[in-house]
Write a structure and sequence with these properties.
Organism: Coprococcus catus
Helix content: 40-55%
Strand order of the largest sheet: 1-2-4-3-5-6-7-8
Pfam families: Abhydrolase_1
GO molecular function: hydrolase activity
Protein name: Alpha/beta hydrolase
CATH topology: Rossmann fold
Keywords: Hydrolase
Number of strands: 8
Length: about 325
Amino acid sequence: MKESRKKLLKGIVTAAAAAGAVYGMNRLVFFLSTMKDLLTSKEKSYYNWRFGDIYYARKGEGRPVLLLHQLSASGSDCEWQSMIDELAENHTVYTIDLPGCGRSQKEKMVYTNYLYVQAVNDFVKHVIKTKTDIITSGDTSSIAVMACHSEPSLYGRFIFINPESLDHMIRTPGPQQKCLSYLLQLPLVGTLYYVLANSRWKVKRDFRTKYYYNGDRIEPGMEDMFYEAAHLGGFAARFAYASQVGYYTRINVVYALKQIDHSMYIIGGEAMEGMDDTIAGYTHFNPAIEAVRMEGTKGMPHMEKPVETADLCKLYLER
């Protein structure tokens, strides 16, 4: 009996020590990843939204344009920083960190496509307060399409940079995705998984394999900004990521795409895999969409060739 108690006590102590070690490691990673304070802005502006404060920045004068960063753990408005000045010459440029991302509040909840649509519509109505053009990066094209479908009078022109394919958007949460999303929401194991899935090595690999056609063009410090954005807000940062990998941020936009009669344009990276099929899918359901491929770019043309991308965007926005 005493031997059994000793084994039980030893097991409890070992488990507690392991849990403490994991917790300590998680805390250390989050602390070290944000200690450079690269994303702190002198002019902090927040929209007090009902599901958490939304960080935003504004620059320039003219017809407003809202820039939406890609939905990812490391997503924030820093991906637009190299082309904001170009656009601000003729436009009032708004950038936001979407709910659960970057400097915006990170709540412990499920983030859905509909929630992001509400956030964008409310931001346009209460902050911008006039008809707005939108430029999106990656999968936020679905947010823009659904926002326009629900509140068409709020929007003018749309530019989608490397939009998510329609085939990917229609994927719904299956058992595997739900299980992974649930795992990520667990206090200790979920945080550890998040730390490993969004390591500095992973961010650097994404820059060289997904975002840039030529890795020599990567701006100094940009990788650190993405890495920091993924760890701002503490352990709650994992919840938006859990919703992304669980497919809760995806939605079928085909019906909405067919109904919209606003001007829409696609800018695709020349080396972006599957972009020809993606463009074909969009233009099939809305033949009025215009598309162009940007030479010498991949997943982030607006970071790799910001001046050329901005010039093309200005051309579309002034039509």
